[in-house]
Amino acid sequence: MHVSVWQGLVGQDEAIRVMQNAARATASGVADAEGSASDMTHAWLITGPAGSGRSNLAFAFATALLSTGPDTLDATIAQVRGRTHPDLGVLTSQKVIISIDDVRSLVTSSHFSPSIGRYRVMIIEDADRMPERTSNVLLKALEEPPERTVWILCAPSEADVIPTIRSRVRSIRLRMPSVQEVASLLRAEHGVDEVVAERSARLAQSHIGMARRLATSPEALARRQETLDLVFGIRGVAHAMQAARRLNDIALEDSAAITTERDERDRAETLRNLGVAPGAAIPPALRSHVKQMEDDQKRRATRSVRDGVDRILTDLMSAYRDVLMVQLGASHEIINHEFRVELAEAADRLTADETLTFIDSITVAQQRISSNVTPLLALEALLCTLI
Amino acid sequence: MAVAKANNRGRAKAAAVIPQLSWSEVRPAALVLVSGTQAFLADRAIRLFRDILRAEDPSIEISDISADSYTSGELMTLASPSLFGEPRLIRVSSVEKCSDAFLADAQAYLSQVADDTYVVLRHGGGQRGKALLDAVRRGEGNGIEIICAEITKDTERYAFAQAEFTHASVRVTPGALRSLVTAFADDIGELASACGQLIADASAEVTEETVDRYYGGRVETNAFRVADSAIAGRAGEALVLLRHALGTGAEPIPLLAAFASKLRTMGRIYGVRGGAGQLASAHGMAPWQVDRARRDMDGWTEHGLAVCIQAVADTDAQLKGAGRDPVYALEKMVLLVARKGRAAA
Predict the structure, then answer these.
(1) pTM over 0.90
(2) What confidence tens digit (pLDDT) does each residue in A216-227 have?
(3) Which of the listed residues A252, A266, A337, B172 has the most CB atoms within 10 Å of its CB?
(4) How far is A372 from chain B (nearest CA, A)?
């Protein structure tokens, strides 16, 4: 159907076919398209590993549903990309959790009838970040949806949403794209050369967003390099504590780099919306607004640091997976080719048992970070298992 | 008087021309500014002021306003003369959070203070309303200022307690005072009520024995003292201190943070040679912290440290929802740290 809608989504042909059918079923009118009426439903859950392109696919699907015909397709694509389409509601959270008020307002707006297209499309990225109470707010809307509203939820796996939601949606599972697929996407989109594309895709373990960052930002690559160097270099408790501190700093710097600029922009925009002249004092009546914005920014920073530490842990996981591979003699599937020497050294120093224990500890550390343990403490505890 | 000296400490108020007094020296004045963060002493000063005025004229009419929810005109209404002309006391609380309307009204009031009216302004510290305070201190409104600063030193607490007993004409031995002050090291209000209790019950003289009978076994402690004794290997003492800390209002998370911070410092300098100053600057710590951690290191092994650091992270997770009983999780961790990370015998 629309080639350009599904562009840049690699390795998800199966999922795309399902969505195309659904969009086609609605385009041709449900009543007369026999057999294809069942292709469309009112609520979808797109699941797949991090970096497989869940949200991108969700937005492509939304575009296909919102589009009114080939003539206006370009405009629809642009509107969806700018998140300005009048029939599109998006809930995306840059905080640790999605708040109940956000969902409530989304549910309210889902009852408006579509103004341009055939559908109103509501997308919740990161549906796994909804606490149970918040999920329950959504249930009613999912169960008895207004006639022309389509919900699209995204989550890493079906287990991440509560069962009552799971039973009300049709699920589309994405698979992990292969390294080659991601590499060719990088070549096509960013014009990077073959070696860089392959390396970025491989080091990112096919996580598309991460691969993009590694391919386009030398700092990201250097940071990854430093992370692994630090951890491979740990020889004693003092080393481990130092490395933990450095890793924590890397995550903080990373987060600061991302959030500082955005925070300032947000602040300027909020003040302009409130009618405060640049540089003027904030009147007492408006302070609560500004305070709320600052609180939001703080929550966003928390999330950003946690994400940074999580990235570091993922890198470590890939490295120690390689160590285990070397130890077990399966060295043809190494991810971190660049660290051959260090990998071999680590494989000699540790037993396969110890490597497995460390990999388990990485998982534990990831869980701890998501349950609000101080990131530095979690990192220290993790690296101490190496001693 | 020792308390007065203590309360005037550390505040440069060159501009003030009005008398600045301690809480016990309060005397009738048309305007009394009670400033400072020590809420307990401020309450006392205001109560004392009321009692003095009431003794002068029992028909005094007392009204309270809160400056943060003040609306225009309230002060003038309360301060305007009444039919029978009784004196009026107006107590204004939370001037540090006052509304703009209050600032305007109060400044207007300063220039024409009403007859037979006493106004008490309670300012709990901070920048808000500074213009008003400065005006009062310059002598507008003919007021006095009562300074109620935080009491931080043990000697000041000692003097405070002594003054309490002297005031009530109850004799007290120095030993009794010392143990009282150690037992109530945190809150001056608690210290005062403990003194009050002893004064009310005591016959002739309060001795150490009396204090012990009333408040024996009570130890004020903080997170770092718990961590110190656990790290030094004194399991029993650490557990007792942990219980005391929890019993006197310490929260589990800061307690844990103290352990994490101490073990972190020890971990960072374990087996690292070099001068304290050099290490301290490399790790962003103070030299005394390095020295302290070196002394703490006695009897610790690298493996033990690693085990304890892992246990602290695990306990953090337990406190933050992974476990059901925070106190049990803490006790388990304290015992492990006191064994210096070795398995239980």
Answers:
(1) no
(2) 888 888 989 999
(3) B172
(4) 7
